């Protein structure tokens, strides 16, 4: 880790001037760095497989590689649990806190408490609007939405469908990312000359609720739609189950996001048209690098990592950010996800049918 080596001098000087974080000798991160334990709170296990299948292992690996102890907990979609995990970590005196909020209210309360205790907070993946975290690590989330929308347009055009209405199944209204994703795909869809036939935001990204929501949209539109922009693979999966029952799976293109194993399998099977790969390995590595710089009180090193900016539209302030670039994934570039460290072929090519499809599409 280059940053760790470069930061060594800064630790030695800054920890002597009472940096908020490096005064716990019990958690010495390694021979050359005194970085206390980093606390991470992930949001849930049900809205996307990414949090436990990708973020937890990648964050663990990134902190381990830097010789820093981490405590990664999951709030299981429960705002009270989110608060109590945070309270525990703050009381324990973690050096930095990384949070993926469940909504702006729960995130803001935690950021305020941690800040008051002198613990820097990084918004991880989701920006807590009005929260006041100093740093944010994520992807360019409007670009994620654009990849969803342009992917859908490509699939429609490939099928010779040049006009018609699209259903939008959006993410949670309490997740700022969902707003940004929608901004991206809504524009791409409309710019390409399609209309929005119906739309619904799915509370808490709940996949079961998504199935109910989509059934209602399907009924409401009387099946008169040419494609479905679903904001992640979990929601896309709920849509595709319904299309299977309707006999239109594979005929009506459906989108997703996260390059989840299930999503990639559906791409190969032809029931999902596009997913979006966000290399969590890079997101976790950037978050770890930033966290370590902040734990050392080395703002210059942190700023050198977080060179982007997003606007907190509640506070009307810019937030220093790391904003990574997403990649659309179709049937023929599933291998990119494997090459990018997102998953492995053996997890995707699990059945005889999938093994054959993997061979056909050069996966593995
Ligand atoms: C993340 C997505 C995820 C969704 C549901 C969003 O904030 O950016 O990757 O699918 O939350 O967990």
List SSEs in N-to-C order.
HEHEHEHEEHEHEHEHHEHHEEEHHH
Biggest beta sheet attributes: 7 strands, mixed
List the ligand species.
beta-D-glucopyranose
Large-scale geometry? globular
CATH architecture of the largest domain: 3-Layer(aba) Sandwich
The total strand number stands at 12
- Low-confidence blocks of residues: 1-31
Q: CATH top level of the largest domain?
A: Alpha Beta
- Computed structural class: alpha/beta
What value does the average pLDDT take? Answer: 92
Please give the domain count: 2
Q: Within the largest sheet, what's the order of strands?
A: 2-1-3-4-5-11-10
Number of helices: 14
CATH topology grouping of the largest domain: Rossmann fold
The helicity comes to: 40-55%
% residues in beta strands: 15-25%
Domain Periplasmic binding protein: 41-298
InterPro entries: Bact_Solute-Bind_Prot2, Peripla_BP_I, SBP_2_dom
Subcellular location: Cell envelope
Keywords: Signal
Q: What features would you describe in this structure?
A:
The structure is a single chain. The protein is an alpha/beta fold and 364 residues long. The chain is 47% helix and 16% strand. The protein folds into two domains: 28-140 and 279-324, Response regulator (Rossmann fold, 3-Layer(aba) Sandwich); 141-277 and 327-360, Rossmann fold, CATH 3.40.50.2300. It has helices at residues 2-16, 50-65, 79-92, 104-116, 141-158, 176-191, 207-220, 233-246, 261-269, 280-295, 299-305, 334-339, 345-348, 352-360; strands spanning 38-42, 70-74, 96-99, 121-124, 135-139, 165-170, 195-201, 227-230, 275-277, 308-312, 317-324, 327-329. It has a seven-stranded mixed sheet with strand order 2-1-3-4-5-11-10, with helices on both faces. A three-stranded parallel sheet has the order 7-6-8, sandwiched between helices. Strands 9-12 form a two-stranded antiparallel sheet. Strand 3, helix 4 (104-116) and strand 4 (121-124) form a beta-alpha-beta unit. Helix 2 crosses helix 10, helix 7 (207-220) packs across helix 8 (233-246) and helix 10 runs antiparallel to helix 11 (299-305). Bound molecules: beta-D-glucopyranose. Residues 47-48, 50, 125-126, 171, 175, 177, 205, 232, 257-258 line the site of beta-D-glucopyranose.
């Amino acid at each position: 880790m280059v940053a760790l080596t470069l930061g060594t001098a800064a630790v030695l000087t800054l920890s002597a001037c009472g940096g908020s974080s490096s005064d716990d000798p019990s958690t010495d991160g390694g021979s050359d760095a005194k970085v206390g334990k980093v606390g991470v709170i992930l949001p849930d296990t049900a809205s996307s497989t990414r949090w436990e299948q990708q973020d937890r292992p990648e964050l663990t690996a990134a902190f381990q590689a830097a010789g820093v102890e981490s405590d990664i907990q999951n709030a299981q979609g429960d705002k009270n649990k989110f608060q109590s995990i945070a309270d525990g970590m703050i009381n324990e005196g973690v050096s930095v806190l990384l949070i993926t909020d469940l909504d702006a209210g729960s995130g803001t309360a935690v950021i305020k408490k941690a800040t008051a205790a002198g613990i820097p907070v990084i918004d991880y993946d989701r920006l807590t609007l009005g929260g006041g975290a100093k740093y944010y690590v994520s992807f360019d989330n409007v670009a994620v939405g654009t990849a969803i929308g342009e992917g859908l347009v490509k699939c429609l055009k490939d099928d010779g469908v040049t006009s018609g209405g699209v259903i939008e199944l959006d993410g949670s209204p309490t997740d700022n990312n969902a707003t940004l994703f929608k901004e991206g795909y809504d524009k791409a869809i409309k710019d390409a000359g399609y209309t929005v036939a119906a739309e619904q935001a799915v509370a808490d990204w709940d996949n079961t609720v998504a199935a109910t929501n989509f059934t209602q949209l399907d009924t409401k539109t009387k099946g008169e739609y040419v494609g479905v922009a679903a904001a992640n693979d979990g929601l896309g999966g709920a849509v595709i189950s319904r299309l299977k029952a309707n006999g239109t799976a594979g005929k009506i293109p459906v989108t997703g996001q996260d390059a989840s194993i299930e999503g990639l399998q559906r791409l190969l099977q032809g029931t999902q048209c596009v997913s979006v790969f966000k290399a969590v390995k890079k997101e976790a590595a950037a978050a770890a690098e930033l966290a370590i710089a902040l734990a050392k009180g080395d703002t210059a090193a942190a700023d050198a990592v977080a060179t982007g900016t997003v606007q907190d539209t509640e506070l009307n302030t810019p937030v220093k950010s790391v904003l990574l670039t997403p990649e659309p994934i179709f049937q023929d570039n599933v291998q990119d996800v494997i090459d990018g460290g997102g998953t492995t072929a053996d997890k995707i090519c699990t059945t005889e049918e999938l093994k054959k499809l993997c061979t056909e599409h050069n996966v593995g």
